[in-house]
Write a structure and sequence with these properties.
The chain is α+β, with helices and mostly antiparallel strands. It has 27 helices and eleven strands. Helix 3 runs parallel beside helix 5, helix 11 crosses helix 13 and helix 16 packs parallel to helix 19.
């Protein structure tokens, strides 16, 4: 077996020189493995050249008459190569030219750290299950998932079923990509066919679909799951097997939200099928015994949170908008126990716009798009961010559009997005969208006025923001400036108020050298308006630096101004 690569230096080559060296080494492509090894001898650090090799191999012309010889070269490199660069060249050639007989070799190479990326990519073109299994074996770090991964690797079907329904599937344990890989590696559709009356398997299949499309990661993983339409059908038609519990109710409601206005709506549905499944879920969740579990919820804080979400959201995915139109805006809050973000879902002609053209994160919040008027079409063109990558805009980009009026129409054009497209789909350039201006204005106003999705802590945050906007002197008195104010991501029933402080900040035009403070306000059960008024009153009467805690800035600046740094640092 090929040993793990060491990390020697790169012979003093810059990145530009490495890129040129890789291109020159592979152009034209040598006809024998020995020449490939010799030309790549200068490349030493596998973590610097893998992407360069990929780009160089992608650019190689492969005429039909030469493909058999190139495929033979690729197999020689992957089976007998003695350096990581040479084997990497063979793997990227197999990404383009691999055949089913290459799968065993690719599975073996996927377990080697410096080769796992291209090996798994090559598997993805040949065998989705093999790709998913290799990815799970190589990339799974959580110990809670290891028993399932080991069962999948052993191909013991009884063990797979046992571990599949047993592993913890909370949001902290299961991301979008892991959910898809588990479904593919377990052959979930086949499992459901072999065990049609197993309610635990139905519940777990529903949970996997929900996690594939969740908005706080890469929701378009659901589009890459080739069995999604079939698994949706099996799950919905067997949902009646599930005992009516709060957890099952929330899972089925999340499934419906995805079908109604989320990524699930973008799957390749036969005519009428999606509407039929949504209607089936709507009838089931409206039944008396399902409603009763929500009415009976109480006691534990998590139960109260989830039950409140179901009460607010329960009928939203099943109700058609009052006025049909080309543009529809739906503010969707996900299950609070999954820590799902609140999304402003924009549907054009009934299809969710953001996941159709942006694969790295969900739509921005209503605070960003509705409350501050970003979606309103004014007399001047305005660039608006519709979505940000789940990691950060500075890492993987964002989706932006220019909104402008053109006579009696509102136009969305001037799209900006990263160069990649959602998985498994060839997405064309985004066209300009034109909307009737009167209908557009009415829909934006309706969505902004609809606060039925909100919960007390989120409402309190909005009222505090409004109060500080109307009365900026409240914070200015304390040399403070408003920061982020919303519900707490980890404790959704708490409101978080942040502000910046530095001596003289009220008159300054920069936050340089300012400290950030955080004040957490648990919901006391009173009316949101009264709670927000009490917060504004205290901010106006008492220096907030005396009861809020430092959460940002620098330890040195905190010490200079006499405030403790978090953790005692």
């Amino acid at each position: 077996m090929l040993p793990q690569a060491s990390r020697p230096d790169t012979g003093g080559l810059s990145r530009k020189e490495l890129t040129a060296a890789v291109r020159d080494a592979l152009t034209p492509l040598p006809g024998d493995a020995a020449t490939v090894h010799r030309r790549l001898a200068r490349l030493r650090d596998p973590h610097r050249y893998t992407n360069m090799i990929r780009l160089a191999v992608d650019a190689l012309p492969l005429p039909d008459g030469e493909r058999q010889a190139v495929r033979a070269l690729a197999r020689e490199l992957t089976r007998t190569g003695t350096t990581v660069p040479a084997v990497t060249v063979g793997l990227y050639l197999l990404v383009r030219l691999g055949e089913p007989e290459d799968i065993p070799c690719l599975c073996a190479l996927a377990t080697i750290r410096d080769l796992s990326g291209p090996a798994i990519q090559a598997l993805g073109r040949l065998d989705r299950r093999a790709e998913a299994l290799a990815s799970l074996v190589v990339r799974t770090r959580r110990q809670e998932l290891r028993p399932l991964v080991e069962a999948l690797w052993s191909q013991d079907q009884e063990a797979v079923l046992t571990q599949l329904v047993a592993f913890p599937a909370g949001s902290r344990h299961l991301g979008n990509a892991s959910a898809r890989r588990i479904a593919e590696a377990a052959r979930l559709a086949d499992l459901l066919d072999r065990h049609p009356d197993d309610p635990a398997l139905v519940a777990r299949a529903a949970r996997l679909l929900v996690r594939m499309g969740c908005g706080n990661d890469a929701p378009t993983e659901l589009l890459a799951y080739e069995d999604a339409v079939g698994v949706y059908g099996r799950v919905v038609m067997r949902a009646g097997l599930l005992p009516p519990t709060l957890a099952h109710h929330s899972t089925l409601l999340a499934l419906a939200l995805g079908l109604s206005s989320g990524v699930g709506a973008l799957l390749d549905w036969p005519p009428g099928r999606r509407d039929f499944l949504l209607a089936s879920l709507g009838r089931l969740l409206a039944e008396r015994h399902w409603a009763a579990v929500v009415d009976a919820a109480g006691g534990e804080a998590e139960e109260r949170l989830r039950a409140g979400w179901i009460r607010r959201t329960g009928r939203r995915p099943f109700e058609l908008p009052g006025v049909a139109g080309r543009l529809r805006i739906e503010v969707v809050a996900g299950d609070p126990l999954d820590r799902e973000p609140v999304e402003t879902r924009i549907l054009v002609d009934g299809r969710p716009l953001v996941p159709a053209i942006f694969s790295r994160g969900g739509a921005d919040s209503p605070e960003s798009l509705l409350e501050n008027g970003a979606l309103r079409a004014g007399p001047e063109p305005r660039e608006v961010r519709l979505a940000e990558a789940y990691c950060a805009e500075g890492c993987c980009g964002a989706l932006r559009v220019t909104i402008r009026r053109d006579g009696d129409e509102v136009v969305w054009d001037g799209w900006e997005r990263p160069s990649y497209a959602p998985r498994s789909r060839n997405v064309p350039e985004v066209p300009a969208y034109r909307f009737d201006a009167a209908a557009y204005d009415a829909e934006v106003a309706r969505a902004d006025a609809d606060r039925s999705w909100s919960w007390p802590a989120r409402t309190i945050a909005r009222l505090i923001r409004e109060g500080l906007t109307q009365r900026p002197e409240i914070l200015r008195r304390w040399d403070a400036r408003r920061g982020w104010i919303s519900s707490d991501a980890e404790e959704p029933d708490s409101t978080v108020v942040t502000f910046w402080y530095a001596p003289g900040l009220a008159a300054a035009d920069t936050l340089k050298d300012a400290l950030q403070f955080r004040w957490v306000l648990p919901d006391d059960g009173g009316p949101p308006g009264a709670q927000a008024a009490a917060v504004l009153r205290r901010l106006g009467e008492e220096d907030p630096k005396t009861y809020a805690r430092v959460c940002g800035g620098s330890p040195e600046r905190a010490a200079e101004l006499g405030f403790p740094w978090p953790g005692g640092g």
